[in-house]
Design brief:
Helix content is about 30%, strand content about 15%. It is α/β, with parallel strands linked by helices. The chain has one domain: Aldolase class I (TIM Barrel). The protein starts with 14 loop residues before the first helix and ends with a strand. It binds iron/sulfur cluster.
Length: about 350
């Protein structure tokens, strides 16, 4: 179902390409990582990398540390597989389901919680598998919302995406659609007018764009988002709290301000899921809470996402705070306490 073309002709996809671009010094080490976890760096992301260890380089350049799996890390940290009634569907909450039509992405993030599954050969649902997934959704009237994820649904050809959305909106009990994508920032030219047009559905559709650093909101990314927004599609932002990428109040403030400037409402800031070989990105929850607290009163409430943990094992997503109420006292944004 992908349209057959890579996100861009010049996407870097292997150790040789990374070495030729000057992004890795040890070609063999990069090749060993790439043999286990997919690699792709689009021209848009490559253009933002000034050093391999800067906030964009860290997100996409393979590192030998990825081959070390910590004891608490798991290949399927939030139990997508265990909660999959049919191939391509994940059913974790009563009223909604994930539909993963493909496991292909424009870029491969080194911290991805689905890193053991995504990749250029990671699979696309066959026509029969997609029909079975749609049949499952049609047979479960409690499902009100379908979240298209993957992989990245924006890698689908516009015609295929439009066809899939038509099938979903034709199911009477499905009231709401959501698409999770990295394409508008990672490969903006891919968001053509045809792709944006595919999002015009007769039921509410929300787009959730994944971005982790303010610099990802380039003029091209903002233009791509405008093409979507011009079709009446509201856009939310989701980010992962990542060491070396956005683990400071300044970096988070810049990220969320960049989202708002692009008319994107920051929705979730995710605690890192314990996927294999991702320990170098871990930020402790207490630090995350302090960072969110530092933003309170400093940025508009519109710029404040919910800081969330997907409880490992598939037990659902919960907010992590920070908390302001302690018994009969409440703390203000500047640290003062007051009686309730
Ligand atoms: S784009 Fe999303 S699904 Fe794909 S590698 Fe990055 S985080 Fe994972």
């Amino acid at each position: 179902m992908p349209d057959g073309s890579p996100p861009s002709d010049r996407t870097l996809r292997d150790a040789d390409a990374l070495a030729a671009a000057g992004l890795v010094a040890d070609r063999a080490a990069a090749a060993a990582v790439a043999a286990r976890y997919a690699v792709a760096i689009t021209p848009a992301m490559r253009a933002l990398i000034e050093r391999p260890d800067d906030p964009i380089g860290l997100q996409f350049i393979p590192d030998p540390a990825e081959l070390v799996t910590a004891p608490h890390e798991r290949a399927d940290p939030i139990a997508d597989d265990a909660l999959s009634p049919v191939k391509g569907i994940v059913h974790r909450y009563p009223d909604r389901a994930l539909l993963k039509p493909l496991l292909v992405c424009p870029v491969y993030c080194r911290f991805c919680f689905r890193r053991a599954h995504v990749g250029p050969d990671g699979g696309v649902l066959t026509e029969a598998e997609l029909e079975a997934a749609l049949d499952w959704l049609a047979a479960h009237p409690a499902i009100r919302e379908v979240i298209l994820s993957g992989g990245d649904p924006f890698v689908l050809a516009p015609r295929r995406l439009a066809g899939l959305l038509d099938r979903l909106t034709a199911i009477p009990h499905i009231e709401l659609l959501r698409i999770h994508t990295r394409v508008p920032v990672a490969d903006p030219p891919k968001v053509t007018e045809a792709l944006a047009g595919a999002l015009e559905t007769n039921k509410p559709l929300w787009l959730v764009v994944h971005a982790n650093h303010a610099s990802e909101f380039t003029p091209a990314a903002r233009a791509a988002l405008r093409r979507v927004q011009a079709r009446g599609v509201p856009v939310l932002g989701q980010s992962v709290l990542l060491r070396g990428v956005n683990d400071s109040a300044e970096a988070l403030e810049a990220l969320f301000r960049a989202m708002l400037a692009a008319r994107v409402k920051p929705y979730y800031l995710h605690q890192l899921d314990p996927a294999p070989g991702t320990a170098r990105f871990h930020v402790p929850i207490e630090q995350g809470r302090r960072l969110l607290a530092a933003l309170r009163g400093r940025v508009t409430g519109l710029a404040w996402p919910t800081y969330v943990l997907d409880i490992p094992g598939g037990h659902g997503k919960v907010p992590l705070g920070p908390n302001y109420v302690d018994g009969a006292t409440v703390r203000d944004p500047w640290g003062g306490t007051h009686s309730l």
